[in-house]
Amino acid sequence: MPLMMKKKEGVIIIGLQKEMIVVLEAVKNVYIKYGQEPVITSGLEGTHTFTSKHPFGYGLDFRTRYFKNKERPLVAGEIAKRLGLRYFVLLERNHLHIHFKI
After folding, report:
1. What is the dihedral of CA 21, 17, 8, 69, to 10 degrees?
2. Span 7-11, mean pLDDT?
3. Angle at CA of residue 30, ends 53 and 100, nearest 5°
């Protein structure tokens, strides 16, 4: 059964690398545990930093605004633990950034 997840309008995930499939599953499971529906806010589109993995299909951002302030680091930490050391998880001011360390 395919993974169903919402994405913000304009988000491009066509070209996402296979290493990011595990990210989608981990985010979905942790968000559901905390009673929230995951929303991808950035994929391959947009302007990113020079070192960004987004344009190459190795980076994704997820909405976090509906989590309580004390939940946000718990959610990020649990996702990071599930993904392991090959993935970088960063809780930013208004979203959760995850990329595969290539």
Report:
1. 60
2. 94
3. 20
Dihedral pair phi/psi, residue 4, rounded to 5°: -105, 130
The secondary structure element, H or E, covering residue 71 is helix 71-83
Are 13 and 40 contacting, i.e. CB atoms less than 8 angstroms apart? yes
- The total number of residues shown for the chain amounts to 102
Task: For residue range 13-54, list pLDDT tens digits in order.
Answer: 999 999 999 999 999 999 999 999 999 999 998 777 778 899
Coil vs helix vs strand at 60: strand
Range 15-18, long-range pairs (CB < 8 A, 24+ positions):
15/44, 15/57, 16/43, 16/44, 16/57, 16/60, 17/56, 17/57, 17/58, 17/100
Determine the straight-line distance between the first and last CA of the chain, rounded to whole angstroms.
28
